[in-house]
């Protein structure tokens, strides 16, 4: 384990923050966001827990920063796909793009579920403001593509994006129960419905929503 010295410059502070975020991301991907403590992150990055408080106020702030980064990464990937589509594209094609880019980012789905539950609740108001503004920027960018493709109004496009992200977070939680519960679901045919596949279900829901919105006069 590497022992970090206290950062003495803005550049060194940024490097420390990046190391902390990377460590938290590794642990979150490995164990799930809920299981990761501040002590775990400190051990992973090679710092004392008290030293980490010079860079981040709480574990929630660390994961909130990762959620904002996840939004930017997902938005860029999704918009790249949407820009290749022409107006009048089938709703199912756009729904598949949403579902595919979300389901291939499992930790982002986990973060989407955790953000409103606890990540926004143990941080400063300024941290929440920064996170919300970063999210809003990506929602507006994705929404512009939905308007180009389907002529959706502001409320409609926000509803689509909210449905996609909130449902992705919820479905991820349902799709990743503990190993014993997973085995129970697979061993009893009566519980087969509890085995959730994020991509197909999210595609079906978004296809129905987009189809309904496009047909609204």
Describe the secondary structure blueprint for this structure.
Blueprint (H helix, E strand, L loop, with lengths): L9 H22 L6 H8 L3 H4 L6 H25 L7 H13 L2 H14 L5 H26 L3 H22 L3 H9 L10 H18 L2
Helix pairs in contact: 1-2, 1-4, 4-5, 4-6, 4-7, 5-8, 5-10, 6-8, 7-8, 8-10
Task: Provide an overview of this structure.
There is one protein chain. With 217 residues, the protein is mainly alpha-helical. Helix content is 74%, strand content 0%. The radius of gyration is 20 Å and the shape is globular. The relative contact order is 0.11.
Summarize this entry quickly.
This protein has 217 residues and is mainly alpha-helical.
Please give a handful of descriptors for the protein shown.
217 residues, 74% helix, single chain, mainly alpha
Low-pLDDT stretches are none
The largest pleated sheet is described as:
none
Beta percentage is under 5%
Order of helices and strands: HHHHHHHHHH
Estimate the mean pLDDT confidence: 90
Total strand count, please? Answer: 0
Helix/sheet category: mainly alpha
Number of helices: 10
Q: In angstroms, what separates the terminal alpha carbons?
A: 62 Å
Proportion in helices? over 70%
Radius of gyration: 20 Å
Shape: globular
